[in-house]
Amino acid sequence: MAISYDKKVENQLLLDGGNEYFGSGAVVILKSLLESGISYFASYPGSPTATVTSLVDKVKHTVLRDLGIYAEESTNEAAAAAALRSSISNPIRGAVAFKVVGFNVAADAIAHIASSGVTGGALILVGEDYGCNNTIVAEKTLPYAYKSGLPILDASASLQHLSDLIHDGFALSEYSGSPVIVLVRSRVGYMSEVVKARDNKRPEKVQVKEEILEKLTFPPYTQIQEAEKYTLRLPKATEFIKEAGINRVYNHSSNKSIGIITHGVLMNMVLRALNSIDEDCPVYSLHCLYPIVENEVAEFLTDKEKVLIVEEGMPNILEKEIRSVAQANGIRTKILGKEIIPKAGEISYETVLGGLSKFFQVQVDVKGEISALEIPERRPTFCTGCPERPIFSAIKILKRQNPEARLLFSSDIGCYALGGLPPFDFKGSVTGMGTGMASSSALSRAGKNEERVISFMGDGTFWHSGLTTSVANALRNDQDAVLVVFYNYHTAMTGHQRNLSTPREVKKLKKVKEN
Q: Would you say the pTM of this structure is higher than 0.85?
């Protein structure tokens, strides 16, 4: 998402503690990082955190430089995640940011850093988007937290709460010795809200130490680190979460025989839905999704006849965790979850309202609750003036003029994937960032007649991973293909962030070469 920032935003970032400001999600996130005393920030643009990348690029040579903070727009998510190495053996605070599908790219680096653990506070800001408002694959970050043993925080629909969790996240990271994930959901990241500022902290320059031997990810140290995760770091994280009151019980009511357990922004939807159906019960909201504070869960479940778990998406990890706690503690409370809450799709107010109507056995006209609006269907399409439209038009004309040509189209992650929709109908594969041409290497040779491959890629994707994943693979395996690179001079789809094709960056590279 392209957003421009003016001088007013710089002034907001420099506000002293006690002042209030009306800030966007990106401004609140960066201000909270400055207040936490970060020394570094690295990111790869991906909505809903792309606006943070754009803002950092805007102020890196002013606000951030004056505070002594290093900031980079990384070539991809793996490069961004690798910056967390700074916090392994040194008391240096820092943060990285990318979207949920970018975690797939960053996972290798994060797995290693999660094994080593950290000395300085380290946050991983992830643009969570299970509803696919800004991405094309429905995916959750929570399974990665379980896989790598990382605490994961989930704010309610409040930028003030998100700001507070960022501060708590750094304290949690240093107390537990683990990097911490902070989810930035689309419905939170794009909010604007009045938030209370704290004083910015200038990071102290430290004498950088070599890596501590025991933190190197080599056997036998890796096995020691793995044990440390589950015997030391996560128990300390659980202790911090409980003492800091990260998770909250809302709606302390007289009706304690039933309850609802939910998380993040879903809590706001649950409270609104309860009000709509004129029902009342306690709501336990998990703002730390992992690790679960088992004695908190057990205490909430005890003496209740039934509890509903409102959890977004699958796998329903929270529901299984809560059922496990009930079984381990001999609690016989009836637990309901995905029996009445949709398994797939973004959880909305309407789905929560429908689920609660079944749970409380009350009749609700969901359609009557939401005003019916006649909204015409609007397919995604190219922006006016986009160079991809005439290129796709030319290829479609070529195809029409040569009906005997056997063409196999391969797309990639970018606006050009829309070429698979009408009116162009180039129904090629979309298999992940930088993999388009590689995805056709085998398929083009598997049929009776070898198809001619035409692959599309933007220059942002080219520098991200396309060069090594698709181009190098094609050269290595003698692939007969045509690669069309849309030379946009920027990473266009996420808001025109700079990359190595940007004229300013090209000039910089030429200057380095000359010197």
A: yes
